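Example record for the data management plan.
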Amino acid sequence: MIVAVALGLALGIQAFVVKPFRIPSESMVPTLEVNQRVLVDRFTPKLGNEYHRSDIVVFNPPKGADLNTCGAQHPDNQACPEPTPGKSDTHFIKRIVGEPGDRLSVRRGVVYIDGEALDEGYARISPNCATCNLEKEITIPPDHYFMMGDNRGSSADSREWGPVPKDWILGNAFATYWPPRRIGGL
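Corresponding structural encoding:
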C-alpha cells in the first residue's frame, strides 16, 4: 500500500508539478551540456503566467521539427514564419528569443527584435551557419514563441520549423540536478 501511494505521488508530481528532463543534444551548449539533467516547472504555467524572452523552456515542437520542415513557403533569407500543423510527440528544450508580436531577424548569428540586437551573453554565436543570416523579418504570431538553442550554429530550432504555440510549452527549466558539478539554478 505504501509503495502504491509513493508511486502515485511521484507520478502526480511529474505530471503536474515538476518534471525531470535530460538534455539530448548540443543545441543548448554552453548553458546546458549533453546528458545534463534539468527540472521543469509544470505548475506555474497552469496558473496563467506568461513566458518571457530568455526563459529556457521544454515544449513539443511542430510536427515539422522532426524533419526541419516549415509550414509556409518563405525566402531563403527569412526564418520560418509559420509552423506545420500538428504537434510532435518529441520534447525539445530551447530558449525563448521571440515573443508574440515581435519582428524578428537574424544577422551574422545575432538575433534582432524590432530592429534592435539582443544582448545574449549566454549564446554561442555563429555568424556563418546555414540559418545564421536570415535578414528578412518575420512577425511572431499571437500566442506563439520563437525558440532557439544557445549553440546557434548547431541548433535545429524555430528558424527552420517556425514559432511554437504557447499551449505546446510544458514549462520553464529552472534548475539542474545532474551531473553533481553542475547542480544549481538556471
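Summary line stored alongside the record: The longest helix spans residues 2-16.
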